[in-house]
Specification:
Elements lengths: L1 H5 L2 E4 L2 H7 L10 E4 L4 E7 L12 E6 L10 E4 L10 E7 L3 E7 L7 E11 L2 E13 L14 H9 L2 E8 L2 E8 L7 H10 L2 H5 L1 H6 L4 H12 L8 E3 L18 H9 L5 E4 L1 H15 L3 E10 L7 E7 L4 E3 L2 E12 L10 E5 L16 E2 H6 L8 H9 L1 E7 L5 E7 L5 E6 L6 E3 L1 H4 L6 H9 L14 E6 L3 E3 L4 E9 L5 E12 L5 E15 L4 E8 L1 H4 L8 E10 L5 E11 L3 E6 L8 E8 L6 E9 L7 E9 L4 E8 L5 E10 L6 E9 L3
Parallel strand pairs: 2-9, 12-13, 15-20, 25-31
Antiparallel strand pairs: 1-3, 3-7, 4-5, 4-8, 6-7, 8-9, 10-11, 14-17, 14-22, 15-16, 17-18, 18-19, 20-21, 22-23, 24-26, 26-29, 27-28, 27-30, 30-31, 32-33, 33-36, 34-35, 34-37, 37-38
Length: 683
Amino acid sequence: MAAFAEMSYTADFHCEKNNQQHRTDEITTKRLIIRRGQTFHITLRVNMNEYTIDHNNILFIAETGPKPSEASGTKVLFQLRSIDPRWWSGAVVSSTGTTLVLTVSPPPNARIGQYTLTLLSPMGQQIMKYRLGEFILLFNPWCREDEVFLDSEEQRQEYVLNEDGIIYNGSCHQIQSRSWYFGQFEESVVDICLKILDKNIKCQNNPAKDYIRRNDPVYISRVVTAMVNCADDKGVLAGKWNEPYSGGVYPWSWNGSVPILHQWYKGGFLPVRYGQCWVFAAVACTVLRCLGIPSRVVTNFNSAHDTNCNLTIDEEIDECGRLLGEDVWNFHVWVESWMARSDLKPGYDGWQALDPTPQEKSEGIYCCGPAPVKAIKEGAVEMKYDVPFVFAEVNADVVTWMCCRDGRKVKTSVKTQHVGQYISTKSCGSNDREDITYNYKYPEGSHKERAIFDEAQFRNKLQPPQEEKLLAHVKTHESVNYGSDIHAVVNISNNSSESMVCKLHLNAQILKYTGSAVKQIMVLSVNEVVVKGNEVTTMPVDVPFREFGNYLENHQLLKLIAVVADTRTNENALAVKDISVVKPAIIVNILGVAILNQVLTAEISFRNQLTEPLYDCVFTVEGVGLIDGMQQIRVGEIKANDEIAFKVQFIPHKSGLRKLMVDLDCNRMKDVKGFKNVVVQCF
């Protein structure tokens, strides 16, 4: 019996080869990380030369979770018979007595997570138990039987394996982009993602029940959207949409998910400060891709926030045109994930909208989705999860009300085509923008789009006013360069045969991208504007940069609102114009060919477009696989209308497509971005 006690097994998990075959070698080759529904190989060795492994008499146990059980499916036993892709199974590849090479197959519906593999072997009258090691099991978009199967290698490369992304922002008239490093394969990120699952409320309250459901991408994606924000739990990010951002990081300063996840993990699971919608979405995308669920970041321009579920957004102005309240954001960012929906009737598989930004509660928790994009397009608001909310984000009507001094509210307009424009995501295999608006809705104004809207059954039965005799229109460029004045005209049209004497109120306001007012910068009132019958009167309006330049922050919009009223009939007309202010560009050029472990030089240039100098200028250069950490270049002052250029050197230490990112902060501007793709070659 003493000899039996000294016997032991060693297991070689062939981490490098298995991980390469399972497309997880970018995470690590030091430990086994595999995908469900795909076989992997193990070599077993026994340390007793006189002992021959009898593969017919050994049993394997794979278990996950704090209290694994066969009843819950978190503990499975299997023998070495033959591979059955429906169940945990194993088969012998070769045997030399003391060495056994075997293949193991986890089923395509296995629970994901950290597993322990144990061997049971008879020794005389005893059953000996040998712990062979641990491995991580992920979803498998390459396995046809897995619910996250994606039948396109190009899309799998983009939506699962690509660590670099582009997030769109700005406004529908001036779409801007920012690079983002998802970093789903960076060191320890997979462990952080599994810890995120463990910290969710459902797992904390009932771990066994939570682990049972970890085979379901619908459940996992819902947990991730809840845990990326900290509104209900020990989530990753705290959101903040107003100054000051003391005690944390200005949301626009983040360039990637990895520092956020590391800070949450190393900081004892305290929320990282601060995030806004694109940060929440990007971090969720990192977690979902890491776990094996194909995911992409999506931006919706003119995104409605329907708080009362009537599919109508009320916008209020006063008699001078000052905006009093609106729930339409310049842009809003969420995530789409690809999965089958076995919990719904057929027809709703595919892309599902998920929103980790805490806006409204879903089943008592701040999360949103997965809402089938097909259900949103067809107005199938009875489908789970949160289809009515996302439907409104892309398809609500905007009703503008004028709040009069005497307490009356006058409906001035109904915009049926304003919400849900240029819904955008990064294209597969390129940095181009892909417009996916028609995935979410039929063409605006079409009979089908209006019919779908009516079928949603939440519609407030407001109808657009009939064509009026008095009309107003603000004409100017959709965007202006930072430092430039705004030149606009207000056209007042009289469609009647009689002359009108009108009052004109025009004001300019700075708005946050969430639609809330930041600063009133100009009010213009003209008491007598004569507009002859069937003619148009034009009023020029200039807004100097000095009036608004000091109040601009990231993606704030200038909104010009003109209210015209006929002094005789009190008939009024409203005109609104949104204007984006475009920051100057940082130009990045790579000098030479990028070769692994060889010095590479980049030239960075920037022109100050202002008529005054910029002070305290700091350029931050970073790029995963290119630069360890970051380089900061302090240039102090950049004179008015002057251009600065400098060079940085670095040694690429990872091959393939990489991204060099540059950020500028100074006294007048923050978070000015530039980037350049770098293909690092192995020679």
